[in-house]
Amino acid sequence: MAMTRRSASHLLSAFRPFSLLLQPHLVDSSPAAASARRAMSSASALRARDEKDVARWRESMGRMRNIGISAHIDSGKTTLTERVLYYTGRIHEIHEVRGRDGVGAKMDSMDLEREKGITIQSAATYCTWKDYQINIIDTPGHVDFTIEVERALRVLDGAILVLCSVGGVQSQSITVDRQMRRYEIPRVAFINKLDRMGADPWKVLNQARSKLRHHNAAVQVPIGLEEEFEGLVDLVEMKAYKFEGSSGQNVTASDVPLNMEDLVTEKRRELIEVVSEVDDQLAEAFLNDEPITANQLKAAIRRATVARKFIPVYMGSAFKNKGVQPLLDGVLDYLPCPLEVYNYALDQNKSEEKVLLAGTPAEPLVALAFKLEEGRFGQLTYLRIYDGVIRKGDFIYNVNTGKKIKVPRLVRMHSNEMEDIQEAYAGQIVAVFGVDCASGDTFTDGTVKYTMTSMNVPEPVMSLAVSPISKDSGGQFSKALNRFQKEDPTFRVGLDAESGQTIISGMGELHLDIYVERIKREYKVDAKVGKPRVNFRETITQRAEFDYLHKKQSGGQGTLSLYLQVLMVNSNLIT
């Protein structure tokens, strides 16, 4: 990264005292000069301390991963996240998605999610694996809630694309992959549900190549499939792993089974060939027939994955607690840290000139509000911090509105639970309370006027007419609609001027049904739902030829006889 003018001046000032030591005859011995030297010495010590802080920050950011988990409906995203939280010690019990045990998965905090067995809102959490901090956002799989995937991928550095080993690449898999391409997200793939009947990971891998145009290769080979699925062989380390214990928490390593040596050798060679096509260092060793070590192969896979030229494919069964720990290792080994991702802002003082953000805490604050929720304590705003530091009690500026706002409360999210923190640094995902803003607003400390590029918001595709059954609940009904419209950019509310109906629009029938149900549960308002009423009109659409004879009596015999008849009637009435 190019050295900034400010850092260059710091280095020059740091070297100045040493040049004076080399030339003692140039040193002024006056009291003022001595005082200046003492000030310079203390400044040098302060710079040294700052450099240590920067080094410490860089090391901590190098051990940070911001990832999302996305897939088609029922591919096992939330089940996978539940296992990740369990193996990292974030939760102490595993619960299933549909809440059969009355608890439900940790990331599905809404009652509707647990009842229907689907994810409706994206949920954020964090965990620690092998001294690395992983921030995770679990996203919905239904196309009706595609905005949740869109805004999650907008602020993440990497992703796990989950594919079903039976269903393969499905419609929403294509949509999610397109969203990852739009935001240039490096990713790893995870072929899930190898324990199911009809599981075929090699078919799915080839589908990803043909339908998604992935340049990919497997980094693992399964030991058995369906009911005989026992473990995995790592093609990089050339080790076999099995997952034992009541929840698969004990991972045992052993040599490659003898009956799989030929298949493993073939797949490892295929992996090396595919990676060599996009990595020059590995290609040189491969063409020279040099033995490829595990470290060489791992480094090449990382370079290619971060550059978005290659997608490593992992395998397993989250429901059967197999293959999750090696996937976590893959997240650490192959997905980028915040410093390895290029993020750009637009400088509003220079006609929206594109500016590359350094991604360090030493820079001025730049943060993006990517998600809003109405919580018990007011509006909860999710922030991704790209530069600088945000502290509780600080004043921050909304660049989009020009307002100065104080941060009353700063938290880290664990699904629907909150942990209060005092400060957060560049690269982290946090939430703040009491900050009035809209989704997509950019916050700074006031020293710069940067805005982040906005996310893609699809247009609604379906509309319904809604109205409260009871007239007394009109206030709560309006409050619910205003809240949902603010939280979800794809949910639109309007009033038809001709019919007088309240029209809600969204991404599909399920999308709107969920909001109607939430109005009933969260605001105790029963709503009447129906099709929007359409006012029909008639108009002339084309020219037509016709003949018409217009008759009109303007005098003569017909008029006189009519006059006499009227007189006779009147005379009879008089007599």
TrEMBL record:
CDD domains: EF-G, EFG_III, mtEFG1_II_like. Residues 62-340 form the Tr-type G domain. Keywords: Elongation factor, GTP-binding, Mitochondrion, Nucleotide-binding, Protein biosynthesis. InterPro entries: EFG_II, EFG_III, EFG_III/V, EFTu-like_2, G_TR_CS, P-loop_NTPase, Small_GTP-bd, T_Tr_GTP-bd_dom. One of its GO terms (molecular function) is GTP binding. PROSITE patterns: G_TR_1, G_TR_2. The keyword GTP-binding applies. It comes from the Eukaryota. Belongs to the TRAFAC class translation factor GTPase superfamily. Classic translation factor GTPase family. EF-G/EF-2 subfamily. This is Elongation factor G-1 mitochondrial. It comes from Zea mays. The lineage of its organism: Eukaryota, Viridiplantae, Streptophyta, Embryophyta, Tracheophyta.
